[in-house]
UniProtKB/TrEMBL annotation:
It is found in: Membrane. It comes from Bos mutus (wild yak). PANTHER family: FAM187, PROTEIN FAM187B. GO terms for cellular component: membrane. Its main location: membrane. It is a single-pass type I membrane protein. The chain crosses the membrane at residues 360-378. This is Ig-like domain-containing protein. Residues 19-94 form the Ig-like domain. Keywords: Glycoprotein, Membrane, Signal, Transmembrane, Transmembrane helix. InterPro entries: FAM187A/B, Ig-like_dom. Residues 1-17 form the signal peptide.
Length: 396
């Protein structure tokens, strides 16, 4: 019963993305780079968990409270970070109720606005390694993640991989750029993340479809566009071991209060179609796609559309949502003009009918006049014949 009510609530609410889970399965200390503006959940398996956020400085770390509006400690102890900014780069410590440190995350939220996107089929090149201006011993490079899965099967599709800015100094272990630099006032076009795309081909396998969202959209605002969101889509690659959370894998927004049921939340590549035609990064980067824009900040999970059509999104070749264009009918806008549009036609018809009547009357008047004249002439002729007969009688 609870599941049924939740599903009904899901279809009554708009489509949202759910956060990407982060965990360190076999370690208590993780150092990683992520992208800003993409929600995440940091795992901490500790009753009564308390989180502490430290911001990086040149020689030390400054303590900061996690009572920030975009940070929420969940009932199961995990930390939800919504729409993280580059300024949220730092250390996230999870302590149990006794104050003992359980987990430590060092995270560099690299600015997704500066994301450098290239496509292999367009001969676009990724960023090259460069020396850092601070010292000749330091150089900047891109640490590439493995390729993500192909977003289509049976036909040519696309796959992508993310690359993060890292700095290495001599024989030291490389570090994410802004964890290394701290609050150093340094700007370079090389200090940014990357995304590379290429064409791929994979065979199809049987897919067990579960829930599908059907929604309507309407072109709005001055630009005449609308934003569509593909549920469970993500810019990140599916992790080998994802965390168990209290969020359900339905296509609706996860309830922050949580359910007891646990699951493994998976992230897979997104594919959009417009009227059964695939939308590709290749067309977008080459300027061929003019009626849609896939948002690069979330790997194309958001789609901006500029014309009415039937849009469908797939995650790992599984249909997740379909969006139909909705036309609003305004009686004042449509019925009145329709009426005014019909009035000239009716007026024209009335004029034609009136002209026909007038023509008929004219013909009738003409016929009547002719008959009247003929009648008068016939009467006059008979009167003349009668007078002649009378004269003949008088002569006799």
């Amino acid at each position: 019963m609870l599941t049924t009510l939740w599903l009904l609530l899901c279809f009554a609410l708009p489509v949202h993305e759910s956060p990407f889970p982060i965990s360190c399965p076999n370690h208590k200390h993780c150092q990683l780079a992520l992208l800003s503006n993409n929600d995440i959940i940091l795992h901490c398996n500790a009753p009564g968990a308390q989180w502490q956020f430290l911001t990086p400085l040149k020689t030390t770390w400054a303590s900061n409270s996690t009572t920030n509006l975009n940070m929420v400690t969940m009932l199961n102890g995990n930390l939800l970070i919504k729409n993280p900014l580059p300024s949220h780069t730092g250390i996230y410590n999870c302590n149990d109720k006794d104050g003992k440190k359980v987990m430590r995350y060092e995270i560099d939220f690299q600015d997704v606005v500066t994301l450098h996107i290239t496509h292999k089929d367009l001969d676009q090149k990724p960023l090259q390694n460069e020396s850092l201006s601070l010292s000749s011993k330091q150089f900047v490079f891109t640490h590439w993640e493995p390729w993500q899965d192909c977003n289509r099967c049976g036909e040519p599709g696309e796959r992508k991989r993310l690359g993060y800015c890292y700095i290495q100094e001599s024989l030291e272990n490389p570090m994410p750029c802004w964890l290394y630099l701290g609050d150093e006032k340094l700007w370079s076009s090389r200090l940014r993340p990357e995304m590379q795309v290429e064409t791929c081909h994979i065979p199809c396998t049987l897919i067990d479809a579960k829930y599908v969202i059907f929604d309507n959209f309407q072109l709005r605002n001055k630009v005449g566009s609308a934003w569509l969101t593909c549920p469970l889509g993500s810019i990140y690659r599916e992790k080998g071991t994802a965390i168990s959370t209290s969020f359900r894998t339905s296509v609706c927004p996860p309830p922050l209060w949580g359910f007891a049921t646990e699951f493994v939340l998976l992230r897979r590549p997104v594919l959009w179609e417009a009227n059964n035609l695939s939308l590709t990064w290749k067309d977008q980067l080459s300027g061929k796609s003019i009626s849609t824009i896939m948002d690069s900040s979330n790997g194309g999970s958001w789609l901006q559309v500029f014309q009415s059509a039937i849009y469908r999104c797939f995650v790992q070749q599984e249909l997740m949502a379909q969006f139909n264009s909705k036309v609003s009918v305004d009686p004042l806008k449509f019925l009145v003009p329709e009426k005014s549009k019909q009035q000239p036609e009716a007026e024209k018809t009335r004029k034609e009918n009136a002209n026909s009547v007038l023509k008929g009357l004219n013909v009738m008047m003409l016929v009547g006049t002719v008959l009247t004249v003929l009648g008068c002439l016939f009467k006059q002729f008979r009167f003349s014949q009668s007078r002649k007969r009378n004269k003949m009688f008088l002569v006799k």
